[in-house]
């Protein structure tokens, strides 16, 4: 057995050879600080921490600090529409109808701001998610209807994200029949499932988000394409809607899809839950409103530039039938790199949403019915949650792998499905936000109620009109 003195000698010898541990030990031996000095230093450190906390509390009272603290949910939720389905819909709008659908985008964006503000307000006042409130206030039967609408809409959007992954592979390879689709799409689904269930998704989320920023290229691309800005403004405020029955049927299809991708149902569940989780106080709600409105304006501007760019470069001789056609709109800005820019942006946006959609759907439905939920739970612990999450990914991959699928057309139709489910959820939102027992003095005013009910009526009328034209009017 080696005695303590021998150990000290060995440590000192090792210290002369550069041992970090022995150096620390020797420094400890040489520490001759008096107890009074140590006590004084400790008091100084505590005083410094108290002063820092005091300054931090005073900083929190600054408006800019409050704005940065609550910023995020509105911006993310509004821009979620600029995913694979959104880009396909906006590109089709510009390539097929020029600037003639900018009015529909402006109205849809205005309605989006109103709806998201109502959901954010409910999140602040009640500190609960939308699914929770629907179950508590309407009971299980009506909750089944609401969650069925959410499941149908989110299934369609999830499929559209995997179609976006397939389209990005086609763009990057320059071949719509590339066999790489059958490797990369299933591999992407497996990676998404693994990242989320293993809790590693947050580490790569920022990478996907940065990749999706490639769509910002549509802003300079719109100016590079040299559109007639006077004509753009004229079509925004005084659109010319005329044509034969076939034209009008396609026009209605695109209008409904544009509304469906702009005011997607899952956005409302996301923003309310996010605001509730942040614990925003009612006296700070004005900053949440800024977040909601600024996020909506930003998303609509990006969507508008997509329509302007494709309208200036592709309309009327180059309809968007494939994702490669949509990438062509960036040629005036990016030249030979247009396909790379569009493909990488589409791939990142699709991966990001393909992870978020199944996860938010599983959380929303399990929250509504009180099922166990959580990515860290096994299948035996949370069977409903794991089944919904995994099932949506598998379904999205399988549908995407169908050979010869017309991706752009399917993406637009899936946004129509989104719009068809939207009025059901909007009715629940309006009834909840006008419940004085829940919201107190923060219920809707007359103006908001008129706009919100008009939105429900308008979307319902558009969906019914589109179905009527699709079924009974022949080209």
Report on this model:
Helices cover 78% and strands 0% of the residues. The chain is an all-alpha fold. It has one domain (81-472): Amino acid/polyamine transporter I (Up-down Bundle), CATH 1.20.1740. α9 (181-197) packs antiparallel against α19, α10 (201-212) packs across α18 and α18 packs antiparallel against α19 (383-400). The model is unreliable at 7-31, 52-62 and 64-71 (pLDDT under 50).
What is this structure's SSE topology?
Elements: H1 4-16, H2 20-30, H3 35-60, H4 63-70, H5 73-79, H6 84-97, H7 102-126, H8 130-173, H9 181-197, H10 201-212, H11 218-224, H12 229-237, H13 245-262, H14 265-278, H15 285-313, H16 323-327, H17 331-334, H18 338-369, H19 383-400, H20 407-433, H21 436-439, H22 446-472
The residue-averaged pLDDT reads: 81
The CATH class is Mainly Alpha
Specify the structural class.
mainly alpha
Number of helices: 22
CATH superfamily: Amino acid/polyamine transporter I
CATH topology group: Amino acid/polyamine transporter I
Q: Report the end-to-end length measured between terminal Cα atoms.
A: 98 Å
- Number of folding domains? 1
Helix content: over 70%
How many extended strands?
A: 0
Q: What Rg is obtained from the alpha carbons, in whole angstroms?
A: 28 Å
- The ordered H/E elements are HHHHHHHHHHHHHHHHHHHHHH
Extract low-pLDDT stretches: 7-31, 52-62, 64-71
Going by CATH, the architecture would be Up-down Bundle
Coarse morphology:
globular
Biggest pleated sheet? none
Residues in β-strands, percent: under 5%
């Amino acid at each position: 057995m080696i005695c303590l003195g021998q150990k000290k000698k060995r440590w000192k010898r090792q210290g002369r050879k550069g041992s970090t541990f022995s150096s620390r030990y020797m420094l400890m031996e040489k520490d001759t600080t008096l107890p009074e000095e140590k006590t004084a230093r400790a008091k100084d450190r505590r005083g410094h921490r108290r002063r820092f906390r005091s300054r931090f509390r005073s900083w929190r009272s600054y408006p800019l600090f409050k704005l940065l603290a609550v910023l995020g949910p509105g911006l993310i939720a509004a821009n979620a529409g600029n995913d694979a389905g959104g880009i396909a819909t906006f590109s089709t709008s510009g390539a097929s109808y020029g600037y003639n659908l900018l009015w529909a985008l402006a109205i849809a964006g205005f309605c989006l701001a109103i709806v998201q503000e109502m959901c954010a307000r409910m999140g602040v006042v009640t500190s609960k998610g939308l699914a929770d409130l629907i179950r508590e206030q309407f009971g299980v039967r009506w909750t089944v209807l609401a969650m069925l609408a959410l499941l149908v809409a989110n299934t369609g959007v999830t499929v559209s994200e995997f179609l976006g992954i397939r389209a990005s592979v086609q763009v990057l390879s320059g071949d719509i029949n590339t066999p790489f689709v059958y490797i990369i799409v299933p591999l992407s689904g497996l990676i998404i499932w693994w990242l989320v269930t293993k809790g590693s998704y947050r580490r790569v989320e920022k990478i996907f988000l940065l990749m999706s920023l490639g769509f910002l290229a549509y802003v300079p691309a719109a100016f590079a394409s040299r559109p007639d800005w006077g004509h753009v403004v004229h079509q925004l405020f005084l659109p010319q809607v005329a044509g034969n029955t076939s034209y009008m049927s396609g026009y209605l299809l695109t209008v409904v899809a544009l509304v469906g991708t702009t005011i997607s149902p899952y956005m409302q569940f996301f923003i309310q839950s996010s605001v509730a989780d942040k614990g925003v106080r009612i006296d700070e709600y004005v900053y949440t409103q800024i977040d909601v409105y600024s996020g909506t304006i930003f998303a609509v501007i990006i969507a508008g530039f997509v329509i302007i760019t494709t309208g200036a470069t592709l309309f009327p001789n180059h309809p968007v039938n494939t994702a490669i056609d949509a990438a062509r709109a960036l040629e005036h800005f990016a030249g030979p790199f247009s396909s790379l820019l569009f493909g990488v942006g589409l791939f990142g946006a699709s991966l990001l949403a393909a992870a978020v959609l199944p996860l938010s759907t599983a959380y929303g439905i399990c929250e509504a019915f009180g099922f166990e939920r959580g990515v860290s739970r096994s299948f035996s612990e949370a069977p409903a949650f794991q089944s919904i999450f995994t099932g949506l990914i598998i379904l999205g991959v399988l549908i995407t792998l169908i050979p010869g699928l017309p991706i752009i057309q399917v993406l637009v139709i899936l946004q129509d499905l989104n719009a068809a489910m939207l009025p059901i959820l909007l009715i629940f939102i309006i009834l909840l936000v006008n419940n004085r027992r829940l919201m107190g003095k923060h219920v809707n005013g007359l103006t908001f109620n008129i706009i919100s009910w008009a939105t429900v009526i308008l979307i319902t009328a558009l969906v019914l009109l589109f179905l009527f034209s699709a079924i009974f009017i022949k080209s």
